[in-house]
Structures are given as structure tokens and as C-alpha cells.
Amino acid sequence: MAKTHKKVFDGIFAQLEETDGDVVLFDAKGSPSVIFSMTNPVPRLCTDPERYMLFQDVLANIVQTLGEGYALQKQDIFCRQSYHHEIPDGAEYLTRSYFAYFDGRGYTEIKTYLIITQEAPKGQFVQYDPKRWLDFHSKVSKVDDILSEKGIRHRRLSKPEVAEYIHRFMAFHFWHGAFSMTNFKASDEYLRTGNRIIRSYPLVDIDEINLPSVVRPYAETSVNGYPIATDVLSFLAEVPHADCVVFNQVVQIPGQRKLLRKLQGKAKRHGSMPDPSNKIAKADIEEVLNILAVDSSLLVNTNFNIIVSCAPDKVTPVTSYLETKLYECGIMPSRTAYNQLELFIDSFPGNAYGFNPDYDLFLTLSDAALCLFFKEHLKGCEDTPLTTYYTDRRGLPVCIDITGKEGKVKMTDNANFFCIGPSGSGKSFHMNSVVRQLLEQDTDVVMVDTGDSYEGICGYFGGTYISYSKEKPISMNPFKVTREEYDLNFGEKKNFLKSLIFLIFKGSEAPSKIEDMLVNQTIVEYYEAYFHPFDSFTPDERDGLRQKLLVAAKMENDYDRYAEKMDDIEEQISSPEPPAQIENKALVLPSEERRLKLIRQCR
Fold first, then answer.
1. pTM (predicted TM-score)
2. How far is CA 77 from each of CA 249, 308, 437, rounded to the nearest angstrom?
3. Of 297, 175, 307, 185, which is closest to residue 246 (Cα–Cα)?
4. Is the Cα torsion angle 136, 138, 141, 143 positive or negative in sign?
């Protein structure tokens, strides 16, 4: 009878289905999981420790919200990619040359996934429990709300995306484009797939647990003698010779009462034996119990695992690099991780409860465990209609909104900025690049150039270059306003003209409120009359004016003259005769003489 080989990858997951609006992944034991794609909120090299603390609070809030019987799994994937930018048809030669220069340049991409898993009831069969199912969806929605409230970009993966994510993890292929599976060969040292080596580095050996006595959500590094804040494991984005690194972080939240009783019993046993090491162990347990009684921390089972893919001849330098960097953090990675295949399988997304509690998990406080979660993201392109490309610290183009007010995120309503630097530092070269990108997006650019630094770009784009000389000085009429300017932006133009008038009129002295009001009203009425000249009264305006004159006549209390000359008033209002022919006609109301003259002149 032929010997059958056990297919270890067949027993990881039970089902992937979309139900109640969520895509739920079930592991082999029946534990449901929902996967979020998210962006870590802390920019890499931001140097602001407060941002790390804020994200630490968000993670602590999520753990408290989930509570007992849930696991929080976070995977940060660092994958080497080749840069490529789609160049639109009809792009300028300089734009095509700019992106062609960076095409194919290698860089590290960071992708982050957050997985919420509910522990399945222990037993041979898993039965449907409507209360547990409702509680699971309620907890997932609460986590979604927490991330949205804190402004952390995230979204739930669709069913095809979850399936692709799982298959890419199995192939350990996170590069852009198509991928394929290949055979696995497992050993005590690593896994071999094709011409690559996959090796897991657990951060903690549970037999020793070499962790720093004090841990924070961030670490400090020195740059030019000044300390700045970075992620505790920020070096994962710079692992040499590695084409892909996955940092798998798992926090399981077990029943708290049972663990507390277990710790209290363990403290009594240590106290019953007079030995220095037992006294230290008892003191540590009592300190943990005091923290649990005072703070809102929880006891959690955790696993931190770094999975690296590299060439077979680069395993030794990669291992040396990771051990050196972890040692600088006060962490001694496990040297007895001989269960490489088991560690790889247990690190699959949604398989947070697959770890062996005897040798893969260690017990700690939730706050301490969350400090080791990766919290950074790399700079990406901003969502803005006015794009200006700069290179980031990786040497790759990213588009930003230099105005600060045109993008989706409004940072200011004032677009002023300046470029400063010593002579020969490249100020003009930089501004030529910025102006070129603005002109290619049909932006109007007006520049005052005193050194002829921008004459070339003006000629390249067919602009108008006006040279100044004493023989031909530049002149302008500031009071010339086009119809388009009047309709779209007269408010700013009016303020400019008012400032110009007061500068000529009063110099540096501030105008009074009356002066400001009179000049403002004069400018408004001047351009109103210019763009809306008077042709004639409309019938409605004539009726309104007639009524005003009648009321004014009655208020003169001279009813005899009013009765005699009312026809004359009507004639003067409605007469089609030119003003010269009615100039000598008598007016009944002396108080209305100026008004009627104005009417005749306007007509």
C-alpha cells in the first residue's frame, strides 16, 4: 500500500464567505475573521513621539473593545518593488524624461493588514450560536468606527481580495503583477520554495523571554547629535538582501479571571520557597497584579514573528543584521525556532489561534505587547488636482500640494511660500521645475525675474517675456478691470485698488472708518455704473418713481398747486421729448426739482 503524504496546507482554512455585508474567513477550527487593509498613521521619520503615543492609544482602545475571546492580528508587509509611473498620452518631453529617469528604481513598499478573529468554542464540532455571531459583527463594526473616528485610513477587503491575499501569503509573493505557486521543502532551519529561502525569526524565546525591562511605543535614535523618535522596529524596512519581510503580530485576549487566579497561586508558590530568584519572581508577579488592579490593561498571549524571504546565500547576513538590530532594541530573538513550517502556517492571516500555547505564545500585559506593534508608513502621493512632484527620502517621485489648499486635505487657505538658500544652491533650478509642472496643468503663472533665470522656460512654453529698461519702463493701469474679473473676483480687485488709493493718498497712515467707507463706496458705484450703464427706466421703475413723487407732493401740503400741476409731473416723467425742450417747464414741487432734472438727464 502506497504511503500517503499529509498535505499540511489543506487544513488551515475551512471556508471564505460573504455574509451580512462582511467577508468572513473561517479557519479549520471554525474561528471567524474579518480583514482590514489599513495605513499606519505615523509617517516614517516624522520625529514626533506624540504620534506614536496616539496610535498606541488607538490599539489599546481596540483591544479593550474586543475583550475576552478575541484576537487582534496585524501584519506589516515590506516588499521590494520596482517603480513605474504611467505617463499620459500627450505629455511634455520634460515630463516623460522625468518619470523615465526613475523607471525601474527599487524601493520598499509597506502594506498593512488588521485582522479581527473570534475564538471558536473548543470541541470536536462547532455549532452555530446566534449570540456569538451577532457579538462578532458588533465588535468588528466598533473597530471600524474607532479607526474612522481617529482618521486612520482603512477598508474591509472584498472576497476576491481576501482570497488573493491568502494565496500571495502562501506563495510569499507580494510583488505587483501575476504570481505562481511552487513546491515547498521544509527543514529545521528554513523553508525553501523555488530559488528563495523563507525563514521565521520569533522575537521571543519563551524559555528565556529576553525583553527590555522598560518598553515604549517608540525608540529614540540620534541624528546629528539630536534625538528623534522612530518606530521600535523601523529597521524592518531596510533589511539588506531581503526581497520581502512580513512582521506578524498577534495578541490573544484570554479569560482574565482564570489567569489572575493562576498568577496569584504562582506568587504564593514562589513566596513559600526562600530563594532570591523566587523573591524576584514573586515581586514581578505582584507588580503585574497591581498594574491590572489600577490600570485598564489586560493579560494577553502574544506572538511576534518576522518572516524573511531572500536568496539562499544571503541567509547568514540577513540573520546577522536582524540579530544585531534586535539586540540594540534589547530583544534577543529565539535561537531554537526549529518548527519553521509550523511557524509559517500559524502566521497565515486569520490563523491567530493556530499557535501552540506551550512554546509559541508568552503572557504579558496588553500595553507592553502593543508597544512592539509596527506603527509607521511611507510617504505617498497626496490626493490633489494640482500636482507637483518631488522625490522623497527613498528617491522616488511623490506628488504633493505645495499650496496647501487645493488638495483633499486642506492645511491652509493662504498659498504663500518662499524658497530660500545660499547662492548656487539651486533655487532657480527648483522653481523652474515647479513652474514647468504648473504650466503643464494649464495654470496661469506671472513671475518677476531680476536675473533672467526664467527666460528659457518662458520661451519654451511660448510665454510673454517683458524686459524692463530705463528707456522702455514697464507701465500698467491698475484701474483697468475686465468683465470677467468683475464677475468672478471683484472683491479682491476692489481691496487692491482701495489699498493703492490710500497708499497714494495717506502714505503709511491708516485711513479712518469714514474715509474707508467713502472710497469703498466710490469704487463700487464707479464700476457698477461702468459695467451696468443707465439706458432708461423700466415700466416698473417708472411706476415706483411716480409713487414716490406723489407721496412727496402730498407731504408739501400744497394741495391746490398739486391739483393744478399733477398733469405736468406726469408729462415730465413720461415725456419722450429731449431734455432741451422741457428745460423751461415749471415744476410744481421745488423739493423735487433736482430729482426731476436727474430723471431727464438719465433719460
1. 0.73
2. 11, 10, 33
3. 307
4. negative
